[in-house]
Amino acid sequence: MAVVITALTLNYAGIVIVTVQPLLGGGLLAQFLLFLAFFLTLVLIARLTIRQVAKLTELDKRTWGLHALGLLVGGVRGLWWAGCLTVLLVSTGVPYLRASVMDRSLIGGRLTGIAERTLVGVADRFPGAGFRSRVLIPPVVR
User: How far is Cα of residue 137 from the mean position of the Cα atoms in its chain?
Assistant: First the structure.
């Protein structure tokens, strides 16, 4: 679900920003906040949907196989969110955050490039890839 949320946010955030930004006023900060609001809205909708589906499909007996599968999926999801977070921090354009991830971190510089290529590759496979803007995540400062 994390992959779907991220891909849909990257592909459709430009449309949301262009539609809503005239109502809120211009500026880079407004674009960034609209991107985050759209992303968090999709996360909230996904969480509510997953909870409702989980209530319908509750199992009385949970086996160790389901627990192992949950650990595996949770680990992959954690790596995905770590990559998304590094790309988000670098994309803000704030010099301190950019230097923290790219220069001061041991693996941040390498992880950011891999994460950005992976995000673009996955988002290209989802509907709305043609709507995506040049910049994945709008910067706060230029």
Answer: 9
Q: What does the pLDDT read at residue 57?
A: 66
pLDDT in tens, 58-103: 665 667 777 788 889 889 888 888 888 888 888 888 888 888 888 8
The span from the CA of 18 to the CA of 24, in Å, is 11
Q: Cα-flanking dihedrals φ and ψ of residue 52, to 5°?
A: -65, -40
CA quadruple 107, 109, 113, 119: dihedral positive or negative?
A: positive
Q: Which two tokens stand for residue 52?
A: 């409702």
Evaluate whether 80 touches 123 at the Cβ level (below 8 Å): no
Are the C-beta atoms of 13 and 32 separated by less than 8 Å?
A: no
Distance CA 128, CA 13 (A): 10
Q: How much is the pTM?
A: 0.79
